[in-house]
Amino acid sequence: VAYAQTVPEEIVGLGVFGSTLVVMTKGHPYLMTGVSPETITVEKLPIPEPCISARSIAFDEFGVLYASPNGLVAIGPGVAEVVTKNLFRRNEWQEYTPTSMVGAVYDGKYFGAFQSATHGANIMVISRDDHPALSFLGINAGALHTDINASELFYYESSGGIIYQWDADALHPV
């Protein structure tokens, strides 16, 4: 109890990079940084980007990613931004129903499965390098999972109720 930390907004999910805990809320994101409980500092980030889907939270080598109403947000060392700002306007992003987004990182890319009245059930793949790139897979995935030990991505095909390995041997899929 002596080391408890709080934020003034409702917490949606948590992520981590280095010795920093990212606290995603229904308002601003917060950083809790420190190497021991008595030295933890809490910082409110200046970007008003709420996390609207706890299942969209994913991690890569640069930090934490999550869906906000305005796009895919990246938070990492020295970075707190909407990485899809050059790919989508807010109203375009909303067409993909980001509240339904389920995320995972695989091969340096963010895989975001969504259920949209406009675009159907699909997975968007976002590369967030200097020139963000976007592609779609045409897969109705209800869940995504990255096995970091084996470096494999699995997805649950909602319509068939089957779990598949992404990029598996076509003759022997999982």
Order of helices and strands: EEEEEEEEHEEEEEEE
Q: Please tally the β strands and state the result.
A: 15
Report the portion of residues in β strands: over 45%
Instruction: Return residue spans where pLDDT drops below 50 for at least 5 consecutive residues.
Output: none
Shape: globular
Distance between the termini: 45 Å
Largest sheet: 4 strands, antiparallel
Helix content: under 10%
Structural class, by secondary structure, is mainly beta
Q: Mean pLDDT, as a whole number? A: 92
Q: Would you spell out the secondary-structure blueprint of this structure?
A:
Layout: E1 11-17, E2 20-25, E3 30-33, E4 41-44, E5 58-60, E6 63-68, E7 71-76, E8 79-82, H1 90-94, E9 102-106, E10 109-116, E11 120-127, E12 133-136, E13 141-147, E14 152-157, E15 162-165
Antiparallel strand pairs: 1-2, 2-3, 3-4, 5-6, 6-7, 7-8, 9-10, 10-11, 11-12, 13-14, 14-15
